[in-house]
Amino acid sequence: MPIVNRIADFAADMTAWRRHLHTIPELGFDLPKTSAFVAERLREIGVDELHEGIAQTGMVAIINGQGDGPTIGLRADMDALPMSEATGVDYASTHAGKMHACGHDGHTAMLLGAARYLVETRNFSGRVALIFQPAEEGGGGGDVMCREGIMDRFAISQVYGMHNAPGLPFGEFHMKPGPIMAAADTFHIHITGRGGHGARPHEAADPVVAACAIVQAIQTISSRNLDPEQQLVISTTQIHTGTTDNVIPGEAYINGTVRTFDKEVQAMVVRRMGQIIDGMAASFDLEARLDFEYGYPPTVNDAAKTEFAAEVARDVAGDAAVNPDMAAIMGAEDFAYMLEERPGAYVMLGQGDGPSVHHSEYNFNDDIAPIGASYFVRVVERAQPVGGR
User: Which of 64, 76, 128, 328 is deepest in the core (most CB within 10 A)?
Assistant: First the structure.
């Protein structure tokens, strides 16, 4: 079964919604214009219930189907990124230093399109909970919505999400069971030495040399402490120290990211980092402290729900356009929190060639919106058919 004809009929509306959202990017939990626009569209569409103010600017809309049945959750994120836009399109950001550079405007438009069709047809049993989430880009809005109880409050039994994917062929669905995206943690290393004159280093305890040694040493965690069949990324992204050429500074700061799929690997990294930093501090006769900041957990797809999602994707896009065993991605996604609470699946929808997400020239491809919306509605109709057939 290809793209739903009725959804194709209002593809222009989804494009208009998406492009309006693109002009008003907002950050984190502070989405007053975005959430107001989404709520207005949902009321026009005619959802049965609209629950606003969840995680500040998030909302859950309920659509009732035919007869009794469970509630299935569909999620879209709404926030943008703190960066300037360079697309040159006539609907570019009107908010300086803010840009929809990850396609959340497109995700929201696709879910609104699915909502419109589901309200019109109600060709499913039970209920659909449409989850519009703030603060995916680092704020953990998915975690906050879960901690505020949306899964129990709305009796959601399973949950599905989607992300556009520049670089994947247009209209292809990619997914995998198990971990599909990584945990994203941050490390902060604070080194306190003893400053002095650059010409008399023997009188100082040099944090610059210690910082260099620590950065090199923690790279051996991947190469010497990890089973080579497992996956791990440790990237040092910042070193800050010093003021001029002839002064040995008293302090240094190191910052970076750790990406893992397995909690045991994550724990090993924390343990080895602590040992390396303590050992290096002793060897350089200074003090060093590790602050390890746990971020989003791995995004882990339920095996059965992922197999189901692949079947639905084949209905929409055809067998050749579905990859059910994609390579896992080292990026992170806070849909992970929802998948920790309920079984479900997260999929990637290819939008063809073009700049990657988080790039100043990125732009969501509106032509994939009918495909994504069709996938969402077919997930509902197949998971919760009328009469259980």
Answer: 128
